[in-house]
Amino acid sequence: MNKKLFFIFLVGILSISCSNANKTGSDSSSNVKVDAIYAGDWYTDDVLPELVMKVDANGNISFQDIEAQGAAIKGIEGSGSSYTVTYSGPDAPDVLIKITFTSNSSCSIIITQNTQTTTYNLIKKQ
What we know:
This protein is of the alpha+beta class. The chain is built from two helices and eight strands, in the order αβββαβββββ. Strands 3-2-1-8-7-6-5-4 form an eight-stranded antiparallel beta sheet. A hairpin with a 2-residue loop joins strand 6 (95-103) and strand 7 (106-113). The longest helix is centred in the first third of the chain and has 18 residues, at 2-19. The radius of gyration is 21 Å and the shape is globular. 17% of the residues are buried. Mean pLDDT is 79; it is low at 1-29.
């Protein structure tokens, strides 16, 4: 009888363990990294360039102006030359950023916050 109870207990634990495989830890989209070939500081391509985005050598991405408002990255999705970054924060409205890299040194981004959408062309400076 004890062997049967142990077997049922073991099967129950294993089935719970397997069913939670994709539900534990952080959201899987937050594990996405930007391709390292895009690492660098990204500026507007205006006459007076402004720093908009940073990508480090590990593929982590940041938008300092958005993060300064109290927002944090909620998730990153995509691969290759196209990514979507979602920010959320207690004191800042949700922000959706669509990035399309056209080369290793240029990209376009579309930032949507509430109902306002802004498009920028960026260039990378080392």
